Amino acid sequence: MAELKLLLTTFADDQSAADIVRTLVRERLVACGTLLPRARSIYVWDGKLADTEEIVVLLKTTAGRAEAAADRLRDLHPYDCPEILAVDPQCLNPAYATWVAENTNPL
Predict the structure, then answer these.
(1) How many CB atoms lie within 10 A of CB 102?
(2) Buried b (16+ CB within 10 A) or exposed e, 48-68
(3) Which of 8, 33, 39, 61 could form a disulfide with 85 if both were Cys (CB 3.0 to 4.6 A apart)?
(4) What is the pLDDT of residues 33-60, one digit of tens each?
């Protein structure tokens, strides 16, 4: 069974999130991106307290493609300092892991 990684990031708007997820899927760096709208993020940026609505994006990839996917995401992302977190899933559906591996294999 393939070892998977879950990459988490956020975007300010749905359109840029969807466009970048489509690029990552087309480039086979991720098998799937799930967009979760209307997340509220509270943080300090440039010395000011921010309270913004964001889109959370969950990107599913393999351990072998995670670094390339994160690098490409960083290149495409509109934020100066994008949140990019890699999470190791503790429980996997073997059929889903196989599907992710098949859809992230370079052609």
Answers:
(1) 12
(2) eeeeeebbbbbbbbbeebbeb
(3) 8
(4) 999 999 999 999 999 999 999 999 999 9
pLDDT in tens, 20-34: 999 999 999 999 999
Residue with tokens 């489509």: 22
Instruction: Specify the length of the chain in residues.
Output: 107
Predicted structure pTM score: 0.95
Average pLDDT score, the chain: 97
The pairing of beta strand 4-11 with beta strand 85-87: antiparallel
With CA atoms as reference, report the closest residue to 68 among 40, 101, 27: 27
3-state secondary structure of 104: helix
